TrEMBL record:
Organism of derivation: Parambassis ranga
Protein name per the record: Ran guanine nucleotide release factor
One GO CC term, this protein: nucleus
Keyword Protein transport: yes
Family classification: Belongs to the MOG1 family.
Amino acid sequence: MQSAGVSAVQPLFGGALSAVIPDRATDISELREIPDNQEVFAHAHTDQSLIVELVEYQGQVVDQDAARYHFDDIAGSNKALEPGAFEVTSVVALPKSELSLSVCSSAWMLTGTQCVSKFNEEARNTVTVHLGLFRLPQFSTDVLITFNDPQSISPESSSASAAGTHREPWTVQDFQRVLQTLTLHNPGLFG
């Protein structure tokens, strides 16, 4: 089902990259400070978020394991590393013929779940994490695009007020469009 809103090409990192970001996206950098290596968007009515992140290329990790490596790293940042708190359900290669970012050596999409708390709260929320990975060894960079899609929100979580207001949530298809439309305009971004 198509959403009624309109997705638009969004410049990223000062226009060095761009992608079609789903409608109803709030640019979080307008609300709080975001690290220079990240672009963060939140859905206006749900607790969903999209993060585009430039990270150091992990040359010691083979391509087919790299998405899982970064997923585990995110789980560590989310303090979701205890047994049962995170799980990978699929990792698939993305055909370069379907991608705008043709300079990547390979691209992957991982789907998994993490039990995370926001703002160091005790309450844990179950979040489906869709992670897109573009490997750019020539720029010593891995580009990560993470779509956080909460599945169950603890009543004690600060996100509980957003639960149940899922008006036109973003879909996996919206996320796949972000991956397919990610475009490099200025390689100088990578230094």
